Amino acid sequence: MKYAEVARQVGFAYELGGNADLNTLIQRGLSHRTQAIKDYLMKSEHRFLGALLVAAWGGAPQYMSVSMDDPDGVLSGIDKQFGVLTFDGTQQYFALDGQHRLKAIKEALKSNPEIGQEDICVIMVSHYDTEEGKVRTRRLFTNINRNAKATTGAENIVLDEDDGPAIVTRRLITEHPFFSAQGVIKVFTRQGEEGELKLASGNVSQSEKRAFTTIANLYDMVRSLSFGLDPAMQKRDARPSDEVLESAYVTIGQRLDDLLKATGNIRESLLAGTSAKDIRFPKNNEAGGHAFMRPVIQKAVARAAAQIAEQDVLPWNAVMERLSKLPWQIGQAPWTAVFNTSNNKMVTAKENVTLLDDLVYAHVAAPSKQFIINARKEYKQVRGSVYPVSEEDLLVNLINHSKKVVVEEASAASPALSGGDLDGATEE
Fold first, then answer.
1. Integer Cα distance of 327 and 393 in angstroms
2. In 329-403, which ranges are continuous DSSP H helix?
3. Which residues touch 87 (CB under 8 Å, ≥6 apart)?
4. Could you tell me if 215 and 174 are in contact, meaning their C-beta atoms sit under 8 angstroms apart?
5. Which range of residues forms the domain containing residue 29?
6. 144 versus 148: which is more confidently predicted?
7. Is 94 part of a structural domain of the chain?
8. Most exposed residue of 30, 95, 171, 270, measured as fewest CB within 10 angstroms of its CB?
9. How far apart are CA 381 and CA 387, in angstroms?
10. What would the mean pLDDT of 158-180 be, rounded to a whole number?
11. With contact defined as beta carbons under 8 Å apart, do 222 and 176 qualify?
């Protein structure tokens, strides 16, 4: 194809259906590498670029094979399977590989339209608007980029068709009653003029009015809450069966529902139209903001709940009950491990996150008195002040981790509560 045709017809991103943000093919933005390619195109007299891998969407493709007579056997040993591929003019193209080259071509043509008559090799693959076609295209994209220049973690969450938690995360954003609501999960943070996207990673802006969390944070929570499921859900390079994925979606979805309810039921407020900004960072009362609107706390709570339930320290429903008794204002302990009440700023250094993990554990299912003592001492070292919850108050939550706890009435609705939670569940 001519450079001009490529620049005009080939795009960076295309919706694959479902959630408009989630199912957008991810293309990297303009970078130093792209600038270098543009400079090469502008300055070199003997310019040459490698092939683009382009997917064709729609256009009613028709393939007509072409054969050649070869009575003398000149073509012996050569593959004779070739022909002509035609479209009806409604097709759209998007790059699977070569996005830096494509961006450089588009930019170079703006400065020097004359190079538009030069040619670049294009390898065309078909993209079908079916579930199987979407899976095939996503897998092709991630395999190409993973084996060449690695895609970001967020890009793999959007596109990976082998990583079970990534697949479940996308389905949650597409189908779950809460997570599929418009804007609840922030998928990307910026869209450029040519459609290139920057995926949302960890942080949610204080001024964000709709988002509960980002796709990367939801993925981390899903991975934490995948405990006790089929081992295939822990393998990133082998797609679980449809049956395993269906079971995982139901189980993880229920666990997330339980977490949302136990942590102050933010869901109802957001679905009712309350501004996420006002819940997260209320004006003139920042310390009264909801702790579970902060990604670092979302992930810490999911990690702690999963670890406690997975180790049979407490059954899932008991963990949820204990979480529900915590104060969910971010200016209260244990959240002050990562929130500075003196300036209303988050403090998310590694030592603060580790401290938060320990304090959540101490509040929900402390394994020993010494653990509580150490956690309070750690708080003094990291935060420079005495932990506001006394040792005596934390001892109420002490659980002997070598013994299981009696559960009088287990919630049958909670998929996290497996038979292993109840077998031999007696307190000595």
1. 14
2. 350-365, 369-383, 391-395
3. 56, 59, 60, 61, 62
4. no
5. 1-62+84-151
6. 144
7. yes
8. 30
9. 10
10. 91
11. no
Burial of 367 (0-12, 13-18, 19+ CB in 10 A): middle
Count Cα atoms within 13 angstroms, Cβ side, for 221.
Answer: 34
DSSP reduced 3-state for 186: strand
- DSSP letters, 232-294, are GGG-SSSPPPHHHHHHHHHHHHHHHHHHHHHTT-HHHHHHTT--HHHHHS-TT-GGGSBGGGS
Token readout for 332 is 């209260």
Check pLDDT > 50 for residue 146.
yes
Q: Say which amino acid occupies 1.
A: M
CA gyration radius, the chain = 27
Distance CA(193)–CA(283), nearest Å, equals 34
Lowest mean pLDDT among 190-204, 333-347, 366-380: 190-204
From the list 356, 222, 253, the residue with the least C-alpha distance to 297 is 356
- Provide the pLDDT for residue 93: 85
Query: What pLDDT score does 69 carry?
Result: 77
Strand partners, 94: 11, 55
For residue 318, tell me if it sits in a domain. no
Among 371, 364, 375, smallest CA distance to 325 is for 364
Virtual torsion, Cα 255, 257, 258, 260, nearest 10 deg = 120
Tell the residue number behind the tokens 């090799």, with chain if given.
Answer: 121
Residue 80 has a pLDDT of 62
Mean pLDDT (whole number) for 222-233: 96
- Tell me how far the alpha carbon of residue 14 is from its chain's centroid: 19
Domain count for the chain: 1
Quick one: which H or E segment has residue 183?
A: none
Task: Report how far Cα 318 is from the mean position of its chain's Cα atoms.
Answer: 28
**Residue type for position 343:** N
Residue 99 region, left (φ>0) first, then alpha (ψ -120 to 50), else beta? Answer: alpha
pLDDT band at 181 (very low <50, low <70, confident <90, very high): very high
pLDDT at 413: 36
User: pLDDT class for 415, splitting at 50, 70, 90?
Assistant: very low
Of 19, 191, 196, 198, nearest to 94 by C-alpha is 196
Asked whether the beta carbons of 205 and 283 are under 8 A apart, the reply is: no
Tell me, what amino acid is at 160? D
What does the pLDDT average to over 63-76?
77
In a domain, 412, yes or no: no
Q: Is residue 56 part of a domain?
A: yes
Report pLDDT for 384.
95
